[in-house]
Design goal:
The protein contains two helices and four strands; from the N terminus they run βαβαββ. The protein has 86 residues and is α+β, with helices and mostly antiparallel strands.
Length: 86
Amino acid sequence: MEILRVSANSKPKAVAGAMAAVIRLRGAAEVRAVGAGAVNQAVKAIAICRGYMAPNGIDLIMIPAFVEIEICAGAKTAIRFRVEPR
């Protein structure tokens, strides 16, 4: 599964477009975000992506979870959103 990393500076429309492309190609996408700003942008992108996919009759669901990731030789907790068709 394709992992999309979102930062606080990510543009939600760009992330939503990438997410829609991954979902169409692979059937699901995984979005990871570290920090409140990044989580905010990720949730906005998921909402926009639902709007992109709705005209094709695809309703998306989001499954959030915590995941440990390595950043700069240290472990951080990220939020992982699995986005897939209902």
